[in-house]
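Sharing in case it's useful to others searching the archive later.

Someone asked me privately for the predicted structure of Ribosome-recycling factor, so I'm posting the question and my answer publicly. Question first, with the sequence:
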Amino acid sequence: MPKEILKSMHADMKKAVDHTLHEFSSLHTGKATPAMLDGVRVNAYGSTVTLKEVAAVTTPDARTIMVQPWDKSVLKDVEKGIQEANLGLNPIIDGGILRVPVPELTGQRRQELAKTAGSMAEDGRVRVRQGRRDALSLLKTAKNDDGLPEDDFKRYEKEVQKAHDDYIAEINQHLAHKEADLKKV
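And my answer, the predicted structure tokens:
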């Protein structure tokens, strides 16, 4: 039973770190990447869909994202979706495609992005702490109901804390790297 609790806890904490890294990928450092538009939702065909479902997203150069809708009739919807995503990007219609120039980051914008990265990291740390809390709660239940010996409980408790510390350190390391990336001109 305790082994399954630890396995589940590790999976949850790993998901928290992966989610935080995915969130970090949405913060751009002035270099265009298709991942910058991952969160864009488009109202097309009577429903809300992701941008990837209606268009190909490429980066022909470091300063431009090119969006080519599969169906030309949704071009205006895609443009509106990008504008409404509040990414600070302004798409330009060029024939049947959208060109999205990525502006140079100002010092103030870099600070805002670093602050956003910090709050994303804190969300990740909260999820890791929640994984620790859930695992400890399940271990206490196992100790009380299933007769888990006190020595084993203490050993598992230390394992849970070590895993928590390792995952928190990993998030902090990624945050420091992302902040350095964002502040580098």
